[in-house]
Specification:
Radius of gyration: 15 Å
Structural class: alpha/beta
Helix content: 25-40%
Distance between the termini: 25 Å
Order of helices and strands: HEHHEEEHEHEH
Largest sheet: 4 strands, parallel
Length: 124
């Protein structure tokens, strides 16, 4: 619905919102990729990683060299394992539930970002 209209590849996602239990046990980036593939969000991460292009204009000279589409947002309750596992994935953004921002949930004012919630974060 809104998530697809925003441009996310969510054809394989079973239901939204994505609330995942046991995500705290993921410690490696390879495990994080496998979890996203199993949830159906792997195509969205691949689309975001493939969209990295050199910015047009003078932003290149001002240390804003690359522009990239946004992928999923992983909302956690402060677990360091989740932060370490997902931080190296291109296009995936991490956020603690206490520091959620409107621009992270709706970048550019367009609602419908793909958000993966941990079970502990969804309970808060």
């Amino acid at each position: 619905p809104l998530v697809q209209a925003r441009g996310h590849k969510v054809d394989d996602v079973v239901e939204l919102p994505l609330v995942v239990s046991g995500l705290e046990a993921v410690t490696k980036t390879s495990q994080a990729i496998a979890v996203l593939q199993a949830l159906g969000g792997g195509a969205d991460v691949a689309k975001s990683a493939a969209s990295r292009k050199v910015r047009t204009g003078k932003g290149k000279l001002r240390n804003r060299r690359y522009v990239q589409r946004l992928g999923p947002l992983v909302v956690h309750a402060g677990e360091t394992n989740v932060q370490r596992a997902f931080r190296n994935l291109s296009g995936v953004e991490l956020c603690a539930v206490g520091a959620l921002n409107l621009l992270q949930l709706a970048p550019g004012g367009h609602m419908g970002r793909l958000v993966v919630w941990t079970d502990a974060a969804f309970g808060q």
